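Hi C.,

You asked whether I'd gotten around to modeling the 253-residue construct. I have! Everything is below, sequence then structure, no commentary in between.
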Amino acid sequence: MINFNKIALCTGCLVTLFTLSGCSAEAVQQESIKEMPTSSGSDMHNIARANNGFAFDMYHQLNKNNQNLFFSPLSISEALAMTYVGAGGKTKSEMAAVLHFKMSDYHLKYAFKGLDSQLKSFNRAEDYTLRTANAIWPEKSFSIKKSFADDVKMYFSSKSSAMDYKNNAGGAKNSINNWIAKQTNNRILNIIPSIDPSTKLILTNAVYFKAKWLHEFPQKETDKKTFYLQNATETQVDMMHQSMYFKYAEGSD
């Protein structure tokens, strides 16, 4: 059984640490790699719907105190999907329910690969950078099947690096923090304060985004305005302003 020992969330980065108890390394298994067609439109639609469902569930869990909240649900979903394709039995069923996955591994892996390719294609625009990166960091004594490592590399563009958590947890922490800093242009530093020597696997997903506004707000149009809080109180905050026709969405909720 996989015990989620620690989940640390930060703007643009997800780090998940696992300790595995009551099972051997042989529990990490999945389908062997096959030559398959690229993801279909229906697969992309299904994975987007699954990610949206998970995002709303996660938001309700994290926002119990009604405070400002910023997180990347896709980062969490994608990182956990890497382990999902290597899971089995009850663990896999429970993960599928939480992540809203309702497709086979065959289609899910290619859906994530297609989604990753689509996100990378946006970087063709000027003044726009969107970079995502995945990595798995197993304890060097914990045997990871080659087929699993090949799968996460092929479908999730993930690197795999063995770490010595038992004898050099500090060195492993520095290596992972340095990787995260590099992927986020040094925007996220030292997200992992320490690592438990019993850790068997760490998943990381980093997101870096920088772009200009399509319609920039004039700096001179920023003024103090009244902002109404949920507890019926008011506060004065800086608000940007511009007049233009924009599209918007409206629903029954």
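If it helps when you're writing up: The longest helix spans residues 41-62.

Thanks,
B.
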